[in-house]
Design goal:
The protein is α/β, with parallel strands linked by helices. 62% of the residues lie in helices and 8% in strands. The chain is built from 28 helices and ten strands. Helix 3 links the parallel strand 4 and strand 5.
Length: 678
């Protein structure tokens, strides 16, 4: 403990069981908008925020830590280890612990609460989701619960932001409670952990199970008293209508046959809606950027600056920004599935399938989260206690199609299917997108199966989860999440695209060869002659100029290695630049083709639709598009993913193996797709 309180500064740790609503409480206290979800394992790392308010005319500052969910102080996984290590580290100087308890499931949550109270921490009980308990007609005697636990109990409705001012006051006035079972201090848990590791490392598996028996005995002893506390403080109806409704829905969504059909149908409809809903706003954005480019082109004097802004920056950035509606809708649908409670059901029904491929249901949440972004999904594997299963999940996660691939998929699918339907009502584009995600998931499982045979372990894993009740998602929470994700996408992708667009513009408009200089002189003469403006001759010169530029010469140098895939040097440049981030592919293509365009008002999709090779044939045939789609489905082209894999595995070996495997898989699969559709 510290003396921070004398300085009107308190360090507060939020701790509770998974899916108890800690992050919602954190957001309510700090005003931030960290991701929340109606399933376990949303928080896998510590989050920090501050809250400042007046207490008795004194300014109080709370430094608040949102820690991963734990069931007890004996950690079983990496995320639980983070929580316990932070809590028990004397350097952290935690002043007050806010124990977040699900008001609709108090009994299970009290195990952790009694352990923390025994360790002499200043504690406050945040009885979260009190609205859910009221809906279930659960009657809680707050006064009785306070007296029994010896800590102040504050009812919270985090969905409606009720009770947080009272909670802040309670934190300031928090006191140490009397121990329930043992007179301990935090060093006990740390010593116990070291003792357990020593026993496990030095004795046989059979003997080391004694430590587990000690833990179980402690839990049984505690639950005997917890049962008494619950009996005195809580009255629950025998049949709860909300749980009855959830059970009826679960009879279908978790059925051994219908459950999988529902999951496939949900995903199929999501991808149908992504194309259907986002097409109009995408066209608006594309038109707006084309008009912006045309306006800037006419307002600025002709020259290098005009060319840089119009053909470099605006063209490159618009190539990615126009796909924001699709990315936003993808995040919206994922948020809806998470908050409604369906994501937990998807995890539950997939456990049986996952086991056959060397995984378990805990891998499902990171895999589904990977459809948004692989980086937080890989961090989410910390909830997997089995080392082998966690390593396999990290290895296969980049094979799941993420939102960064969506702009690439959308552009190429739109070129293949400009406007077509099947069965009269379904969008062909959405169906192809669904197949790409399904293909990625299938290859993911097959890769996991191979790794299961290669990696040997004696660890036995199991998957136990509590299905949350279905809830109607709050539009505000989903809206904030979508806004946050899109903002991060624009910020991260924007920085890369901005830099690459400037570099590409320079390399595509400059060259050292005599031929390039001669073409540049001829181009200037033709542009100054009004009779030849936008003539076929001028376009030929611009094409030749691009081919002889720095970027053109480099692209032609690497072209032989990608020609078997059906790619030309322009695609090769986009493949290289998109190593930084996959979505850069579209911006690169937009910049390259804009540098070669005489009709500036035409979008990138229209340019690809009419692009022809040296023989006069259409370049972007179904064979080339499928080859590119398959390549991007499997290639590891994301520096952020590589960095987080290194951090989570603590080894460059797995990064190298993963990169070589995925690159080889992408190349061979793209080659096969090109030959198949040619």
């Amino acid at each position: 403990m510290s003396d921070n309180k004398q300085n009107n500064y308190l360090k507060v740790a939020l701790l509770g069981n998974p899916n108890s609503g800690k992050t919602s409480v954190f957001n309510g206290l700090t005003g931030l908008s960290q991701k929340t979800g109606n399933y376990a394992g949303v928080t896998v790392d510590r989050q920090e925020g501050k809250s400042t308010f007046l207490h008795n005319e004194n300014k109080i500052t709370l430094s608040i830590l949102d820690l991963p969910g734990v069931y007890s102080l004996f950690p079983k996984s990496n995320d639980e280890e983070i929580a316990c290590k932070t809590l028990l580290d004397e350097k952290e100087n935690v002043d007050v612990i806010v124990i977040v308890i699900d008001a609709s499931n108090i009994k299970r949550n009290l195990l952790l609460a009694t352990q923390l109270i025994d360790l002499k921490f200043k504690t406050v009980i945040a009885l979260n989701m009190i609205d859910e308990a009221n809906n279930q007609e659960i009657k809680i005697n707050i006064t009785e619960l306070q007296e029994t636990l010896g800590a102040e109990v504050i009812p919270l409705d985090s969905r409606r932001q009720k009770g947080f001012s009272v909670l802040k006051e309670a934190i300031v006035n928090a006191k140490t409670s009397e121990s329930f079972f043992y007179d301990l201090n935090a060093a006990y848990i740390k010593d116990y952990k070291n003792y357990r590791e020593y026993i496990t490392a030095t004795l046989s598996d059979k003997k080391s199970t004694g430590t587990t028996k000690l833990e179980n005995a402690d839990k049984i002893y505690r639950f005997n008293t917890i049962n008494y506390i619950v009996a005195k403080s809580i009255q629950s109806p025998e049949q709860l209508s909300s749980k009855k409704i959830s059970s009826k829905i679960d009879a279908i969504t978790t059925h051994k046959i219908y459950g999988y059909l529902v999951l496939l149908m949900v995903l199929f409809l999501v991808f149908q809606f992504i194309f259907f809903i986002s097409e109009t706003p995408m066209n608006w954005i594309e038109t707006a950027f084309l008009n912006l480019g045309d306006y800037v082109h006419t307002q600025l004097p002709a020259g290098q600056l005009n060319d840089l802004i119009v053909n470099g920056l605006i063209a490159g950035i618009s190539g990615v920004v126009m796909f924001i509606p699709q990315i936003a809708f993808l995040f919206m649908f994922i948020g809806f599935l998470e908050d409604s409670g369906y994501m937990a059901r998807a995890s539950f029904i997939m456990d049986k399938i996952m086991r056959r491929f060397g995984l378990n249901g805990k891998s499902v949440i990171p895999l589904i989260s990977g459809t948004a972004c692989a980086v937080p999904a890989i961090m989410g594997t910390r909830t997997i206690s089995n080392t082998k299963e966690r390593l396999i999940t990290i290895f296969i996660l980049p094979l799941i199609s993420c939102s960064a691939r969506l702009p690439v998929y959308t552009l190429l699918i739109s070129v293949m299917f400009p406007d077509s339907k099947f069965l009269g009502i379904f969008n062909s584009k959405g169906a192809v997108l669904f197949l790409l995600y399904l293909m990625g998931f299938t290859v993911t499982l097959l890769t996991a199966y191979v790794l299961k045979k290669i990696l040997k372990t004696k660890e036995n894993s199991f998957y136990v989860m509590e299905l949350p009740v279905y809830r109607w998602p709050q539009a505000k929470n989903i809206g904030l999440m979508v806004f946050s994700k899109v903002k991060v996408f624009i910020k991260e992708a924007g920085k890369i695209i901005l830099a690459i667009s400037i570099i590409l513009w320079f390399l595509s408009t400059h060259g050292m060869s005599n031929e390039f200089k001669a073409l540049e002189t001829t181009q200037i003469a033709l542009e100054n002659d009004p009779t030849t403006e936008n003539s076929i001759e001028l376009k030929k010169i611009e094409t030749k100029k691009l081919e002889n530029s720095f970027i053109g010469q480099f692209g032609q140098f690497i072209e032989p290695t990608i020609k078997p895939l059906g790619y030309d040097w322009k695609i090769g440049i986009a493949l290289i630049t998109s190593f930084a981030a996959r979505e850069v592919f579209v911006g690169t293509m937009a910049t390259i083709y804009q540098a070669n365009a005489t009709e500036k008002e035409v979008g990138i999709k229209q340019k690809l639709l009419v692009e022809k090779d040296d023989l006069g044939h259409l370049k972007y045939t179904p064979a080339v598009c499928w080859s590119l789609l398959v390549f991007y489905a499997f290639a590891l082209q994301c520096m952020s993913t590589i960095a987080v894999v290194k951090r989570e595995t603590k080894s460059w070996k797995w990064v190298l193996v993963q990169f070589v495997f995925m690159s080889t898989l992408a190349y061979l699969s793209a080659f096969s797709a090109y030959r198949l559709f040619s």
